[in-house]
Amino acid sequence: MKSYYKHTLLSFLVVVTTQSITAQELESIQTDRPDLTESAFTVPSGYFQLEAGLMRIKIKTDNYLNLHPTLLLKYGLSSNFELRLATDLVTYQSNGIKETQFLPVAVGVKIGITDEKGIIPKTAFIGHLKIPTGGQGELSPTYYVPSFRFTMQHTLSDRISLGYNLGTEWSGITAEPIFIYTITSAISITSAFGGYLEFYGYAPQFNRAEHSIDGGFTYLINNNCLADISFGAGLSDNAPDYFMSIGFSFRVNTRSKNKAKSME
Predict the structure, then answer these.
(1) Taking CA 199 as the corner, what is the angle to CA 86 and CA 207, rounded to the nearest 5 degrees?
(2) Which of 106, 33, 38, 103 is CA-nearest to residue 68?
(3) How many C-beta neighbours within 10 Å does residue 214 have?
(4) Which residues contact 174 (CB under 8 A, 6 or more apart)?
(5) Which domain holds residue 173?
(6) Rounded distance, CA 247 to CA 254, Å?
(7) Other Cβ atoms closer than 10 A to 47
(8) Which run of H or of E encompasses 212?
(9) Is the Cα torsion angle 56, 236, 166, 171 positive or negative in sign?
(10) Measured between alpha carbons, how far is 221 from 199 in angstroms, rounded to an integer?
(11) What is the number of alpha carbons within 13 Å of residue 194 lying toward its C-beta?
């Protein structure tokens, strides 16, 4: 019996020590908001992450788009593979008339491709497929809507990083592809407080491209929670006039309870 208790105590100490070291080594939460540049980092294996926000976009005189909320749910299946599900509740306001609807759910994945090494950036691939719901609203697509992008990130110093995305999406209403570019520079002002500045644009195959600029701040509440605020404005006359957004993201370890039960 004594050897049994010694073995149990030793096993307990090993598990606790391992979990403590893992928690210390786990990087702070990485999110795909508030900027348009998607992160090259995937959610850690076994973690569920939710990124939510509110956004108001002024398109033209008396035309507004309110997203309340935007939702992105992620789950890490391995160290470089995450499942993704996204949707938005949108209210389109035009000349005093409002139309509210859920945008189609987008299901997808993010796959880590390379880690950063010298001039080679940390790189990941993101692919989504929006599923039409049969809605009749102006923002409802008619067809299944694919989108994809490659996201890259360089570490310029201990406090500054550079990220950029290249990709393509479709509207679901026409077959015309829309090419996407983003480039952002982020800085860690303190260990918890950060900021960024970003340029981005959309270039339809047969129409004029639109270009915008935005910037914002993030606050790391703890290792697993992040708050953000951002503002943006159009640079070309066909881009939205401006937008503003606030958001909150968090992650939880879904396997911690299973580990605790296995120890009972």
Answers:
(1) 80
(2) 103
(3) 23
(4) none
(5) 2-263
(6) 23
(7) 20
(8) strand 210-222
(9) positive
(10) 27
(11) 25
Task: Report the predicted TM-score, pTM, of the whole model to 2 decimal places.
Answer: 0.85
Which pair of structure tokens corresponds to residue 201? Answer: 């644009």
Question: Distance (Å, rounded) from C-alpha 13 to C-alpha 125?
Answer: 39
Tokens representing 154 are 């360089």
Please state, as a whole number, how many other Cβ atoms lie within 10 Å of the Cβ of residue 240. 17
Structural domains in the chain (count): 1
Give residue-wise pLDDT tens across range 162-215: 999 999 999 887 889 999 999 999 999 999 999 999 999 999 999 999 999 999
Contact 215, 194 (CB under 8 A): no
Q: Exposed, middle or buried: residue 198 (CB in 10 Å: 0-12, 13-18, 19+)?
A: buried
Tell me how crowded residue 191 is: count the other CB atoms within 10 A of its CB: 8
Q: What is the pLDDT of residues 101-137, one digit of tens each?
A: 888 899 999 999 999 999 999 999 999 999 887 655 5
* CA distance linking residue 55 with residue 34, whole number of Å: 10
23: left (phi over 0), alpha (psi -120 to 50) or beta: alpha
CA–CA gap between residue 167 and residue 27 (Å, rounded): 27
E-strand stretches of 15-80: 47-60, 63-78
Fill in the amino acid letter for 188: S
172: left (phi over 0), alpha (psi -120 to 50) or beta: left
CATH of the domain at 160: 2.40.160.40
